[in-house]
Structures
1.
Amino acid sequence: MFCAELKSDTLKGIVNIISTLIDEVKFTITPEGMTLKAVDAAHVAMIEMDVGKGAFESFTATDSEIGLDLDKVKGVLKLASSGDVIRMEQDESHGRLVFKVGNITRRMNLVDTSSMSDPKVPQLSLTANISVSVDELQKGIRAADTISDHITLKAGADYFELSCEGDTDSVSLRLGKDVLPALDTDSEVCSMFPLDYFSNIVKAVPSGTMVNIELDNDYPVKLLFGLADGNAKVNYLLAPRIESE
Amino acid sequence: MFCAELKSDTLKGIVNIISTLIDEVKFTITPEGMTLKAVDAAHVAMIEMDVGKGAFESFTATDSEIGLDLDKVKGVLKLASSGDVIRMEQDESHGRLVFKVGNITRRMNLVDTSSMSDPKVPQLSLTANISVSVDELQKGIRAADTISDHITLKAGADYFELSCEGDTDSVSLRLGKDVLPALDTDSEVCSMFPLDYFSNIVKAVPSGTMVNIELDNDYPVKLLFGLADGNAKVNYLLAPRIESE
Amino acid sequence: MFCAELKSDTLKGIVNIISTLIDEVKFTITPEGMTLKAVDAAHVAMIEMDVGKGAFESFTATDSEIGLDLDKVKGVLKLASSGDVIRMEQDESHGRLVFKVGNITRRMNLVDTSSMSDPKVPQLSLTANISVSVDELQKGIRAADTISDHITLKAGADYFELSCEGDTDSVSLRLGKDVLPALDTDSEVCSMFPLDYFSNIVKAVPSGTMVNIELDNDYPVKLLFGLADGNAKVNYLLAPRIESE
């Protein structure tokens, strides 16, 4: 059993993040909220999301799993205005989820989750810890566009830098301690990542969100941030592109 | 002879409605205004429009016919700002209509109307009568998108419903008497229509317009509404799609 | 040596004008500013631009030449907001120009200018002299769209007219002395021009700019206007399309 109401903006925020990686998703439902673990088809990035009860206007559920086609959920979101409340109710007899937005009722077939297994999220302990507004990251991504397919993240004692090195041209965005709420590293660390993945996730995070970045040398980067006033927590892990490959 | 001035918004409203069905149109001009009857190439929908003198800022005409290419008229509308007055004057010696918008003069060849006959508009007496804001219809159309190629309209004693049934998913917009200025039917009636036609006409009606819908079982639907503060009257008729076909 | 700072809007205005003709450009730098002479590949139009020191927030340079790829400069402009100051500094050892926008550093390879020769700008003495707001010209261009590939400019004692003559349709924008700050001609003059070239340059001139037009019979037209509060001067020359060809 699953019946919940949430603001359309909250649902939109959740869907935008997940759909950077996958189109069909399995949510694990408990009486305390929804969780999700997903990896993209190429196994380059991984997402772990925990949407607590508090992110919802109302939430009543027993343990269950729900498989959703995110493109269809995006269609439902287009029917709602900002601030509208969306109601979701499981219709177990028909294997459907019923969405209600105002006087619109949208019945959606659930996706079969039997073949969708949860990926194992590696436990990483990374050297550098940076707190940065996603707006700065979005600025860095705009600058990187057309220079290269990769972006390098680098952190030192007093800076965090995003840079791109092309054959003839280069660009870098260097952020000092004055614009970084937190910056903590024992040594200078640096890893390179596929620009498209990094760009997609950074663009999907709502403007104004603070992102915690954990970084090391030629290691995955971890992006941690909250949605829905912190009631939803996201852990995004992106594999590095090792230069010597 | 035909010489008239009207607000660009009025002309735009008229052109938007007609161009959902046809590209070239014959207007019948009398000293009292312009009328039009048109059917689309596939004979699925029909439009009857009566633009009275009152819709114009000035209007002087003798009985005549004018054939227009609506794409060209749309080009003229792009030259006018909202609130601008557009002047149209027939140049009979050259078979042209001369548009004036501010200090722009646009001379347009008339379309030959000799082969354009008026369709016969069937007189229908339909069971249900519903008054509804076009904004509600537009909401229903947005919801129907991607579910199916058809939309079902249904009216009962206390509701009017737009719905779409796909293979696995469905959507419906149910409007109660609280949002319907008028709802009058002896029995529950229901017909299905091609979504593209219904969608095109509903999108072309200006936001805020009240539409009168006449509906029956497996019969055409009639949409009646006004433009230009009620000085132009539109009667739109759409053939049903009978399921057993 | 070249090091300068200027408002992003100023750089944008300059780039928009030049890129109507060419993609790669050679600027001649002196201690007093930058100049440019360029002709398009088809030798139909020519541009002469003089950007004085006063157009910059700061400007320090010795005599030199700088070759730039305008598409890349447009990329830099996308990183700046209106009002932002962009810093450009020549890195002579690497043959690069370094742009700084806020905390972004963009290093750009310079284009080789050795094969780029300055075109000779013909000295013309043209009969008619018209001062007109570019907004009026932009209105005329919107009207000309879809009628013909050519636009005719005509000036008489008390009017300036832009017109287009198609096979069946025509359009004209006639401006009287009331909307023309200056209009001076000994006789009626008229020349026809390729609409695409005329349209591109007119659209690139910022709204509100006053353009001085010099016109004659079947002769090139000269468009003179200022950018950056008059600190940059542009002379644009467009070859006529002679009807008898």
2.
Amino acid sequence: MHLNSQQIDELTLKERIHLINSITGIKPANLIGTVDNAGQTNLSVFSSVIHLGSNPALIGFILRPPGEVPRHTYENIKETGYYTINHIHPDFAQQAHLTSAKYAKNESEFDACDIQEQFLDNFIAPFVKESQIKYGLEFVEEIEIKHNQTRLIVGEIKEIILDIHPQTTDGGLDLEACQSVGISGLNSYYKFKRIATYEQPR
Amino acid sequence: MHLNSQQIDELTLKERIHLINSITGIKPANLIGTVDNAGQTNLSVFSSVIHLGSNPALIGFILRPPGEVPRHTYENIKETGYYTINHIHPDFAQQAHLTSAKYAKNESEFDACDIQEQFLDNFIAPFVKESQIKYGLEFVEEIEIKHNQTRLIVGEIKEIILDIHPQTTDGGLDLEACQSVGISGLNSYYKFKRIATYEQPR
């Protein structure tokens, strides 16, 4: 099947959304935890978390344009300056997915989706207790993608909690052993099987 | 294991690179194909391809700061305005990984890594023949992440070639059936097993 520019334009909105959302390949499945200054927590699934650099340790994620839909995650990050990113595992993937429904600002997805909060003494944002790989970030930069008004939110890692940390032979986390989860499109979840760790080519 | 900000700073560079590169979870494994105005092709593996929007169909990827290492992909995109993104599959994952070695500007990774070029009549950049899911993009925007000088390169999809297009029940590509591949850290490759497709929650 070959679609040129005109044929891509002629796809129905539903066809286009599902195809374009899955055409980049696998996406990491993460929950982002935030809190407002009044103590109201929020939790939401994101498939757009991306590595931006290791030194400093910078991580990004994509937000749809402010104003298009409620943006409790965005508002809380701007209000407090902190948030957490938490890996999703198969045993709570369905609950994690439910955080993508619309909830009122005064309702916490932790309660609504039966997910447990975990706090560190000196870090305001809530972690996900069930997650075995999680980290806390300080907001550093918001960047607008002018062509469609989405935002890249950039944060620096300040705290790392690894309940398990199996490594591959190259020193990275073994995501099969970690039982981390990926997403394709909007609603499909995958687990991983490691096929190889190659040498760094010269 | 809990690392605070100071302990993260005290990691060796190698430990930090491998941990921070794998802490976002799974990353999609793609080859980006380009050509310069003289017809010299280039191919390079990227794990930072990200969905930015479906209408228009915008895809991004991250480049390290210009000047830090040779940037043939970047130079070619700026020179011609076009590039391709091609899914990696298990049967050529090792060859694809070899494109991350350093090659001279006048040497094509297609030849050096034994990967075949494929061209469309009206699109200048080379596709990967072995890839079953691939698309051609027009460059639209370059955005600097000020905190570490990396670049987000944004393109709009103009051509889509799907040699296979199995769908999940939600209408997206089934990445297990597609035999697409993911990366963790720098050198580890994974295949996928779909665990569930959930309803869109209300």
